[in-house]
TrEMBL record:
Encoding gene (name): recG
Database matches in SMART domains: DEXDc (SM00487), HELICc (SM00490)
Name of this protein: ATP-dependent DNA helicase RecG
Stored PROSITE patterns: HELICASE_ATP_BIND_1 (PS51192), HELICASE_CTER (PS51194)
Residue span, Helicase ATP-binding domain: 283-446
Catalytic activity: ATP + H2O = ADP + phosphate + H(+); Couples ATP hydrolysis with the unwinding of duplex DNA by translocating in the 3'-5' direction
UniProt organism field: Gaoshiqia sediminis
Record-linked CDD domains: DEXHc_RecG (cd17992), RecG_wedge_OBF (cd04488), SF2_C_RecG (cd18811)
Catalytic EC class: isomerase
Function according to Swiss-Prot or TrEMBL: Plays a critical role in recombination and DNA repair. Helps process Holliday junction intermediates to mature products by catalyzing branch migration. Has replication fork regression activity, unwinds stalled or blocked replication forks to make a HJ that can be resolved. Has a DNA unwinding activity characteristic of a DNA helicase with 3'-5' polarity.
GO molecular function: 3'-5' DNA helicase activity; ATP binding; DNA binding; hydrolase activity
């Protein structure tokens, strides 16, 4: 016998087999529980009725009592539109429908009194309501107070009369049955500490709020619960992993590290770099496997930190590998690191998708014997059948392209003790998101740039000032600098994008006849790409025309200016990443955002944010708020489909913090949830295993 709320939705009065099928298919509502947790997306005050004469198009949703005088049908066949004159004692307005016309005509009766509800607009000087909700005036609203809940439905559901109102009615049919049948999901000690509303009250209030205060308490409780269980799950997995996996102990700081520090380090470490290295060293001495996320804005010097950690691995007789998301980056890392290690005598190799099979064999051999100490490469590293002699450390650069699942696979590279893992990201992830996406990692932050860097100046230009912009580029090049000009991916088709880029390239050749241009895009062979990059790096070309392939990590300090074409088409974090390609040298750098006049408010906000700040964390917060975490770069690939029902990582950061702390307190006190008072938590954690969240990827 299932729990009451686990019953099939078809058994709910008002549903039945056919509607049940629809609810399952369209909204994934299978059980009473699913319906109960299908929360409204908004509430509207339905106590106020307007008179027709008071209504104007500036108002938000309104409701009005009145009668239909007559219908008029306009237009032909598919483009038909039905209108009705709707009046009360103060005047009349129009009701308009573009679909469902037959049903409306058959079911609405002229002369009868209705309540119409909708958002007023104006057409031909007359106020109208398009696709209003209509209900017989004698029918009572289903609310317990003033606020009417609104639910998302789909077109298919609406056609079958499962409107927001119908769902509201189903919620009502369910709500009147649930007394005493809903079991609390949070133990008293958690609820009391935070003064949370009991679950049954919260569920009732979320659908049928008595007032805004109780609604707010209910919302808080339900958001907390959702975030709390996610945190509890992540943290308990982390605990388990820490218990299960031992870690190599790197106790020695020896020849490699010291020699590098004394002879090869061309500058002083920043305090932030020192702090982070200390944090990492503590992990490496702890006897537990390190799983650390190293966050630092572009140019903050993460690569150097990674290299110094690798040197510690060598000092202790271990190998290390460094993985980059693209071939360009892998090659670049390989070259810089090779140069930086000059004279130290570390054996280092590069392995990517385009490594020739003969060379590959030699490299494989060197890795197996342990002769090669540092292997730099792309993701191919983990796909590859590479087996290491003694892999002690894996560094992953630019994590936002590297999934949690892939990370987990790395641990298995060694039988027995897994390597330490250091994940580096330049995409500053808002703390709230990091706590969830990378909640199983410890986090270090480099929150300081090397000294002497001048903040990049960012400006936004419309088309009409293109000449000025080009003139500026000329000046920069004349004073010895180099420039990037970046084109977006505009169409779905790679071919067209390439065309767009090539047209741009041809045009630029005419605009800058005296300069040499390089071009890089995703379709070039790695060797060609590398060659173009190399020309630019060596200063043999002055302008680099590129798509976003230059986004990540590319380092040409003499490039001091970047134009981003159609900047309105880029996401915020991408703009920030791109901008990070300049400002790497001692010169003042510039980022010029070109856009058309017609841009959406959201695009405008993005461009304004870029102009206002260089702070990656601030940008990430704005990005999260504008787009929500689902669209944030990285979350898709991360392998962790976060599917939140009510809480929002963008807006509920504070609740998340409370939930994280509570989960952490509970586990500190009772790591395996063995105490009597925590049995409820254990039960629900286990129940979560079957939900859409694929926990296995991080366990
Ligand atoms: P990130 O990977 O964090 O974007 P990089 O490691 O590529 O940054 O470093 C950017 C540039 O800053 C490199 O040219 C690097 O040599 C230099 N750099 C790193 N640390 C320092 C430091 N402490 N002082 C001066 N320059 C530094
Ligand atoms: Mg980097």
């Amino acid at each position: 016998m299932p729990e009451f709320i686990d019953q099939d939705i078809k058994f709910l009065p008002g549903v039945g087999p056919q509607r049940a099928e629809l609810l399952k298919k369209e909204l994934r509502i299978f059980t009473f529980r699913d319906l109960l947790y299908y929360f409204p997306y908004k509430y509207i005050d339905r106590t106020k009725f307007h008179k027709v004469s008071e209504i104007n198009a500036n108002q938000a949703y309104i409701q009005v009592k009145g009668r239909i005088k007559h219908f008029d049908l306009h237009g032909e066949a598919r483009k038909q539109r039905l209108s009705a004159v709707f009046y009360d004692e103060t005047g009349s307005l129009d009701l308009i429908w573009f679909s469902g016309i037959k049903y409306i005509r058959e079911n609405l009766k002229p002369g009868q009194e209705y309540v119409a509800f909708g958002k007023p607009s104006v057409f031909n000087g007359r106020v109208n309501l398009i696709h209003p909700e209509l209900e017989g005036a004698e029918k009572e609203q289903i609310t317990t107070g003033v606020l009417q809940a609104y639910y998302n439905t789909t077109e298919t559901l609406k056609k079958r009369f499962l409107t927001t109102r119908a769902i509201n009615k189903l919620q009502y049919n369910l709500a009147i049955q649930i007394d005493g049948k809903i079991y609390e999901t949070l133990p008293p000690h958690v609820r009391e500490k935070l003064k949370l509303l009991p679950l049954n009250q919260s569920l009732r209030q979320i659908h049928f709020p008595e007032n805004t205060h109780t609604l707010q308490k209910a919302t808080y409780r339900l958001k907390f619960e959702e975030l709390f269980y996610i945190q509890l799950k992540i943290l308990s997995l982390k605990h388990k992993r820490e218990e299960a996996f031992k870690g190599f102990i790197f106790s020695t700081i020896g020849y490699n590290f010291n020699k590098f520090y004394e002879n090869n380090l061309p500058f002083n470490l920043t305090n932030a770099q020192k702090k982070v290295i200390k944090e990492i060293r503590r992990d490496l001495g702890s006897g537990k496997q390190m799983n650390r996320l190293l966050q630092g804005d572009v140019g903050s010097g993460k690569t150097l930190v990674a290299l110094m950690v690798a040197l510690i691995a060598f000092d202790n007789g271990f190998q290390a590998s460094l993985m980059a998301p693209t071939e360009i980056l892998a090659i670049q890392h390989f070259n810089t690191i090779k140069k930086m290690l000059d004279g130290i005598g570390v054996k280092i190799a590069l392995l990517t998708g385009s490594t020739k099979s003969r060379e590959r064999k030699i490299i494989h051999h060197g890795i197996e014997t342990g002769e090669i100490q540092l292997l730099v490469g792309t993701h191919a590293l983990i796909e590859d059948t590479v087996s290491f002699h003694k892999l002690g450390l894996v560094i992953i650069d630019e994590q936002h392209r590297f999934g949690v699942a892939q990370r987990a696979r790395l641990w298995k590279k060694n039988s027995g003790i897994p390597p330490h893992v250091l994940v580096m990201t330049a995409t500053p992830i808002p703390r709230t998101l990091a706590m969830t996406l990378y909640g199983d990692l410890d986090v270090s932050v480099i929150d300081e740039l090397p000294p002497g860097r001048k903040p990049i100046e960012t400006r936004h230009f419309y088309e009409n000032r293109r000449k000025e912009v080009y003139q500026f580029i000329r000046q920069q090049i004349e004073s010895g600098r180099q420039a990037y000009i970046v084109y977006p991916l505009i169409s779905e088709s790679e071919k067209l994008d390439l065309k767009n880029l090539e047209n741009g390239y041809e045009l630029l050749k005419e605009v800058f006849p005296r300069y040499k241009l390089s071009m890089v895009h995703g379709r070039l062979k790695p060797a060609e790409k590398d060659q173009e990059m190399q020309l630019f790096k060596e200063g043999k070309t002055q302008i680099m025309v590129a798509t976003t392939v230059i986004e990540v990590g590319v380092d040409v300090p003499n490039a001091s200016v970047m134009i981003i074409e159609s900047a309105e088409r880029f996401g915020l974090s991408q703009l920030h990443q791109l901008r990070g390609r300049v400002g790497r040298g001692a010169e003042q750098s510039y980022c010029l955002l070109m856009s058309s006049y017609k841009i959406s408010n959201e695009s405008r906000k993005r461009l304004e944010t870029m102009v206002r700040t260089n702070d990656g964390f601030e940008i990430a917060e704005v990005d999260l708020q504008l787009r929500g975490p689902g669209d944030l770069e990285g979350t898709q690939q991360s392998g962790l489909g976060i599917n939140l029902n009510i809480a929002s990582l963008g807006k509920d950061g504070e609740i998340l913090r409370v939930a994280r702390n509570m989960a952490s307190d509970v586990l500190d006190d009772d790591p395996r949830l063995e105490k009597h008072e925590n049995q409820l938590l254990l039960y629900h954690l286990q129940r979560m295993k079957n939900t859409e969240f694929d926990w296995s990827v991080i366990s």
